[in-house]
Amino acid sequence: MNGFMYGNIYEDEKRAERQARFPSLLSQFAEDFSLPQTNFNKDTLKAGTGRR
Per-residue pLDDT tens for 22-45? Predict the structure, then answer.
């Protein structure tokens, strides 16, 4: 089994770090979570959905 998540990407460095904090911690403590397969993007098609 493998887990991943979607996240937003921000130009503001502090906000971007805060967005990546949980996936980074999860990858350290959950062996079935994949940080490399986590997707940070600005896909406007996903705006307003659970994936954006």
Answer: 989 999 999 888 888 887 776 777
Domains of the chain, by residue range, sit at 6-46
The dihedral built from the CA positions of residue 18, 24, 30 and 34, taken in this order, carries a sign that is positive
Confirm if 42 and 9 have CB atoms less than 8 A apart.
yes
Whether the CB-CB separation of 32 and 2 falls below 8 Å is answered with yes
pTM over 0.90: no
Tell me the HSE value of 39 on the side-chain side, using a 13 A CA sphere. 7
Q: Is the pLDDT of residue 1 over 90?
A: no
